[in-house]
């Protein structure tokens, strides 16, 4: 379909580019290969020669472990978007990036990521527990 028949093109391509960034995918051809679709399809979307089909969007979403509904909605293939379409939206961008890296990693890379983050997470949990205990002690003294 020509671009004039696809008013959502710009928003969809922006969402597609954001997805690529989250998953550290540099080129459309790499995304196409990962999703098992033709790189020409993505090129045609960018040129406004075609709209993406629900099938191709679903393949991209599945390959990148992203929710399908927001991509379908921004492409104009379904109505609206659930309020919880981006369940990570309230997280700090760094945490979103860590989650995206985890999702895009191999099992071995995931193991390294988890083993690297575990000491920091444990330290934060300990600090939170100390803060909770201190607040409880203050509360008991003031009673």
Determine the number of helices (DSSP H or I, runs of at least 4 residues): 7
Q: Could you report the average pLDDT, rounded to the nearest whole number?
A: 87
**CATH class categorisation of the domain at 3-86:** Mainly Alpha
Sheet with most strands: none
| Unreliable runs | none
The CATH H-level superfamily of the domain at 3-86 is lambda repressor-like DNA-binding domains
Tally the beta strands.
0
Structural class: mainly alpha
CATH architecture grouping of the domain at 3-86: Orthogonal Bundle
| CATH third-tier fold name of the domain at 3-86 | 434 Repressor (Amino-terminal Domain)
Shape: elongated
Give the N-to-C terminal Cα separation: 72 Å
> What is the string of SSEs from the N terminus onward?
HHHHHHH
Query: Nearest-angstrom radius of gyration?
Result: 21 Å
Q: Provide the helix percentage.
A: 55-70%
What share of the residues does DSSP label as strand, in percent?
under 5%
Protein name: Helix-turn-helix domain-containing protein
Organism: Paractinoplanes pyxinae
Pfam families: HTH_3
InterPro entries: Cro/C1-type_HTH (IPR001387), Lambda_DNA-bd_dom_sf (IPR010982)
List the helices and strands and how they pair.
Layout: H1 9-22, H2 28-35, H3 39-47, H4 54-64, H5 68-74, H6 93-104, H7 107-142
Helix pairs in contact: 2-3, 2-4
Pfam family, one: HTH_3
Protein name: Helix-turn-helix domain-containing protein
InterPro entries: Cro/C1-type_HTH, Lambda_DNA-bd_dom_sf
How does this model look, in words?
The protein has helices spanning 9-22, 28-35, 39-47, 54-64, 68-74, 93-104, 107-142. It is mainly α. The protein has a domain at 3-86: lambda repressor-like DNA-binding domains (434 Repressor (Amino-terminal Domain), Orthogonal Bundle), CATH 1.10.260. The longest helix has 36 residues, at 107-142. Pfam families: HTH_3 (PF01381). InterPro entries: Cro/C1-type_HTH, Lambda_DNA-bd_dom_sf. Residues 29-71 form the HTH cro/C1-type domain. It comes from Paractinoplanes pyxinae. This is Helix-turn-helix domain-containing protein.
């Amino acid at each position: 379909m020509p671009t004039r028949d696809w008013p959502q093109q710009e928003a969809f391509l922006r969402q597609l580019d954001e997805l690529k960034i989250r998953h550290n995918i540099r080129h459309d051809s790499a995304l196409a290969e990962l999703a098992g679709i033709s790189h020409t399809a993505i090129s045609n979307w960018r040129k406004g020669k075609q709209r993406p089909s629900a099938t191709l969007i679903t393949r991209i979403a599945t390959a990148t472990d992203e929710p399908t509904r927001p991509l379908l909605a921004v492409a104009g293939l379904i109505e609206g978007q659930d309020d919880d379409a981006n369940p990570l939206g309230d997280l700090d961008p760094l945490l979103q990036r860590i989650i995206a890296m985890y999702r895009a990693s191999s099992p071995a890379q995931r193991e390294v990521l988890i083993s690297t983050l575990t000491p920091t997470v444990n330290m934060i949990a300990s600090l939170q527990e100390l803060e909770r205990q201190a607040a409880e002690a203050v509360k008991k003294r003031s009673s």
